[in-house]
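Posting this for the archive.
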Amino acid sequence: MATTAKAAKAPKETKPNAGFMKPLTPSKELAEVIGAEPVPRTEVTKKVWEYIKANKLQDEANKRNINADAKLEKIFGKPQVTMFEMTKLLSAHLKA
């Protein structure tokens, strides 16, 4: 019995999006939280979350909100943001 062409093809390997993996330089304000070394966008978000959890800045009543301390307020521009806003606000503090 012959195999079909679909069955013979090996599955494609997915490669990470190069845009997300490109190291970006954080602003002075963001560097106070994650360090000054250029890092990929994915690592920026990961490091900011580590900082938020270490400093217990996630809102107790609504876990989707982040209560900014003095360092994060310089980045966010306001005392509280949602986790969805955070990603957009962090982008403004990254440069290629």
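The chain is about 45% helix and 10% strand. The mean pLDDT is 87.
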